[in-house]
Structure formats: C-alpha cells, structure tokens
Design goal:
It is a single chain. The termini are far apart. The protein is an alpha/beta fold and 330 residues long. It has a 7-stranded parallel beta sheet with strand order 3-2-1-4-5-6-11, with helices on both faces. 39% of the residues lie in helices and 17% in strands. Helix 1 packs across helix 7 and helix 6 runs parallel beside helix 8. It has 10 helices and 13 strands. Strand 1, helix 1 and strand 2 form a beta-alpha-beta unit. It has a domain of 196 residues: Rossmann fold, CATH 3.40.50.
C-alpha cells in the first residue's frame, strides 16, 4: 500500500502522519479544506484543496489517482463546540465521511484507516478502557465518531471495504525537531493552553476542577505523543494489507497524568513559573480516563516510544517557543 490518500492531512495529527509516510517511502496525496489545517505543515507533499461536504470534489480527487488506501483525519474535534453546535459536527463528521465512503467504493479504494476517539466511551464504569467496553458518548463529537464506526461495519459487510479505527486518547507533543506542531486558535488542549501562559500570551492558566477524588484533586488523563499516533497509522496500513479485516484499536500510553502533574512538568522543562488560577470543573468532565492498549501492541505491533510526560512537554515547548504564533509569522 504505497499510494495513500490522506483527508485532513494538513491538520495536527494528520501532518505528523504525512511527514512519517513521506519519510517511509509512501506516495502521499493530501485532501484538505485548510479550515483548520496548515499548508506550511506539509511542504513538498501534493495537496488537493477540497471539502468532503462537496461530493464532486472528493470523487474527482479520488478518481484521478490510483490509491491503495485512505487515511481519514478530516473532522471537527472540539467536544465543547460540538455541544453548542451539534449540526456542524454531524454534518461534517458523518455526512462528510459518507461522501468519502461513497467515492471510495465507486473508485475501488477499499482500505481505510479512520481517526476515531476515546470520546465514544463516555464516562467509564471500569478502567483501563478496553475496546469491548460499553460505548455511551456524552457529546455530539463522540457520537459522530461512533456513528462512523458503525457505518464502517456496514460498509465492510456490504462493500468489503476494510477499515481500522484508531481510538486516540489525549494527543499531544510535537515533532522532535520542533518543525511541526499543533496550531489551533484558540487552543483547546491543556498543554498548548499552558504554553500560552508560559509565553506571556495570556496572564494566567485556568485549572478547571481541583476537587476531583484523585490524589491531587485534579482529573487524570492518558497522554499519547502525536508521533506514536502517527506510527500507529502506518502499522494499521500494514495490518489491513496483512489481515484484510476490519478492526478497532485503543491508542494510549496506558497511564494517567493529572492536570497538576502536567503543570509541574511544564514548569520544570521550561524553567518558567507562570500564574495558575483555580476554576470550576467543566460540565461532564470524567474523573479519570486511561487506555488499555494491549490489543494494539499485540496485533499492530505498536510500541509507544515518545509518550512519557517529559518528552511530550519537551517537544511541545520546542514547537511553542520556535513558533509562538503557530505557522503564522505573528
């Protein structure tokens, strides 16, 4: 599977995966509307600017190439925004994917790696989270991803379209040389938010929730480095080629870090003591989430190499201090 079509490939996780695909000898074409993606993150890679909501654009892009597989990142991914505007999320994440799948079937491209999320599980009854646990999303974002996973099951049965769904936990970090990173404004993840406080772009960092039933009172999450996620996509392509079957995998570091641990590590790595203001819990925030990734390790042969908290923060800091305004000059 050397010819790969990547939707949303100019986004955060997509651009790191495209970089790894290029370095690994794949022929890569990116399809992105650049609403949240950045052309600067995929310099030297073929880019087709288009939108999955426009069927003729995605069909035209797919039929003009002889692709072996699609990696599908293109989606809106903010839990909070999805609660405020569910139409936007169901339209883009579900209808857009349906246009992609219809095009794939018509063009005879029957291998897909899908960017899914641990948000499909909602608040877990048990930890760690394995693939078989009950799924009850608590946001339109999580629901949209679960809907696509269910749709993929039907496309497997009806069209023999094989797919691997990769359910990310908390993606974080940047490329080891600081050349590629997360440029979402305003930032929605904890580490980019903290980095804005370190750089003085805001006067303080708001710590949401300090009375959780955890050792330090803050919620616990599973942080997995974006480079480890990128590696999983290449392994998923190999799995599709080798096994020719549809499957799903949880991708996490299998350990939790609290918000206070993140803050302490950022202060240690950067040498900066920024102001932290304690705020209320966010509605629906679970106490703790962390993955059981044993299935991915066993079947994909996936081994996270960069998902220790120190490396995550060091690479995030390298990107943030060299790109304080993201890919824009100011």
């Amino acid at each position: 599977m050397k010819n790969v079509f990547v939707t949303g490939g100019a986004g955060y996780i997509g651009s790191h995966t495209v970089d790894l695909l290029n370095k690994s000898g794949f022929n890569v074409t990116v399809f992105d509307n650049l609403v949240y993606g950045h052309q600067e993150s995929i310099v030297g890679t073929r880019l087709i600017k288009g939108d999955l909501l426009n069927y003729s654009e995605i069909y035209g892009a797919l039929k003009d190439g002889r692709y072996d597989a699609v990696i599908h990142f293109a989606a809106y991914a903010s839990v909070g925004e999805s609660v405020k505007d569910p139409y936007k999320y169901f339209q883009n994440n579900v209808y857009g994917t349906l246009n992609l799948l219809k095009s794939m079937v018509e063009c005879g491209v029957l291998n897909l790696v899908f960017s899914s999320t641990c948000a499909i599980f909602g608040t877990p009854k048990t930890l760690p989270l394995s693939e078989e646990l009950e799924k009850h999303p608590e946001s339109p974002y999580g629901e949209s991803k679960l809907m696509v996973e269910n749709i993929l099951s039907w496309y497997d049965q009806i069209y023999n379209l094989r797919s691997v769904a990769l359910r990310y936990f908390n993606a974080c970090g940047s490329s080891l040389d600081g050349s590629i990173g997360e440029d979402v404004r305003p930032p929605i993840r904890i580490i980019p938010n903290i980095m804005d406080a370190v750089l003085g772009k805001k006067t303080y960092f708001t710590l949401n929730g300090t009375d959780f039933p955890t050792p330090d009172g803050t919620c616990i999450r599973d942080y997995v480095h974006v480079l480890d996620l990128a590696d999983a996509h290449l392994l998923a392509l190999d799995y599709l080629k080798r096994e020719n079957k549809t499957d799903q995998f949880n991708l996490g570091s299998e350990r939790g870090s609290s918000n206070r641990e993140i803050i302490r590590m950022v202060k240690k790595v950067t040498g900066c003591d920024f102001k932290v203001v304690e705020g209320p819990k966010r509605a629906g925030d679970p106490v703790a989430l962390y993955a059981d990734s044993s299935k991915a390790k066993r079947l994909l042969k996936w081994t996270p190499k960069h998902s220790d908290l120190k490396t995550i923060v060091e690479t995030s800091w390298l990107w943030s201090r060299s790109h304080p305004y993201g890919y824009s000059p100011e």
